[in-house]
Amino acid sequence: MSDTDAAEGLSFDFAATAPDLRYKLLTGLVVPRPIAWVTTRSTTGVVNAAPFSFFNVFAQEPPLLVLGIDTRSDGSPKDTLVNIRETRAFVVHLPDEATAKAMNDTAMDFPGAEGEPEALGLALVPGTHGPVPRLRDAPVAMECRQVTTLNFGPRRDLVLGEVLALHTRPGILDAGTLRTNYEIYQPIARLGGTLYAHLNDRFSMERETYEAFRDRTGKDGA
Asked: For residue 2, what pLDDT is reported?
């Protein structure tokens, strides 16, 4: 931390900041973050489920998403990463208020041989584009194929996945316009620590064109 007076804000040199403190700062300030509730299948057939909030969509052509996976506290790889490396297949679900508790329950440190969906009684639906089933009650599910995994040291991997198929719960998308009905789809987002956020307080802003800006301000761009 710098010697800057607190009234003027705080500054941090990350080269001199411990990783745990970096995590606290980044997860507390980069908010809200979407949650990837990921299912995978081991080579022995065990279906794993776990949430991750270092995640977002990356592109639409090709349709890509990125998933950041840390190690366990003892440094061993998590089941999700092991399974993706071995099978190259996974499903990313987006949890909502109705599935929040189930999502949080799957964050428990289950042993690799015990699948969270089976232990917690979470219903599964077979995948249509791969061997990994999706969680039946999740509002959104994206079946993915691993494109590549980038390793950044002993504790962090970034999985780049191609979305092969997308499934939604009835009512979330208008069948004609494909617009999202946010009165029905009520996703939750990750804050810092044990905090989560509802996303039901929304506002809209129209984007002004440059021509309208020029006419309004009298600036001609010269």
From this structure: 52
